[in-house]
Write a structure and sequence with these properties.
202 residues, alpha/beta, Nucleotidyltransferase, domain 5, five-stranded mixed sheet, 9 helices, globular
Length: 202
């Protein structure tokens, strides 16, 4: 962790924004993208920050609050399932990343993203392989995006209790597949995804 950010800080490049998404592979619910600037990604209080997938759900909620209290700017973009369908998940993700960065109250000197470069951003940026595991700023964005999306999926579970969104968060599981076969699709399912399209057109 922290090597890339340390090099940027040593070169006098700041602030640094980390960008990541949650829900790219889900077949239901929104895609959520977060951009986060923390004043010092090397600060001891951020030592608990890791890739959101490596942290238990209740612990993520705690770290979410830590990040919110420390961050100098946070921007979150929520892309509805219908927009993912109309634009395609990759295009929607890249556009969401741009919107998240432009939504920051500070203009970052450098932007670090997880896996995908942000085409047309107009700011220095670098895509980092497995960035949510090796860059604190990206990990922080990962947690902000994941917790935000999980909360949305729990709310959707109240609207559509038959699908179990609170448990699987819109990803395909055996229980989700059974629910789809029993109840069909709802407005939150991504019709462009193969498993959902197959149910609609069978």
């Amino acid at each position: 962790m922290k090597v890339i950010e340390q090099l940027l800080i040593n070169a006098g490049i700041a602030p640094i924004a980390g960008v990541d998404e949650a829900g790219r592979g889900a077949c239901a619910g929104p895609l959520v993208i977060a951009a986060v600037i923390v004043p010092n990604p090397l600060a001891p209080e951020l030592s608990v920050v890791r890739d959101s997938k490596e942290i238990a759900e209740n612990k993520r909620e705690e770290i979410f609050e830590v990040i919110k209290s420390i961050a100098t700017s946070i921007s979150v973009v929520i892309v509805a399932a219908s927009e993912v369908d109309s634009r395609g998940v990759h295009a929607a993700n890249l556009d969401g990343m741009r919107r998240a960065v432009y939504g920051l109250e500070q203009i970052p000197a450098y932007v670090l993203t997880d896996g995908y470069a942000i085409e047309g951003l107009g700011l220095p940026n670098l895509a980092v392989w497995k960035g949510d595991q090796v860059v604190v700023s990206i990990s922080a964005a990962s947690i902000i995006a994941k917790v935000t999306r999980d909360r949305i999926m729990r709310d959707l579970d109240l609207q559509f209790p038959e699908y179990g969104f609170a448990g699987h968060k819109g990803y395909i599981t055996a229980s989700h597949t059974r629910a789809l076969k029993s109840h069909g699709v709802c407005t939150e399912h991504r019709r462009s995804f193969a498993n959902i399209a197959a149910l609609i057109h069978k």
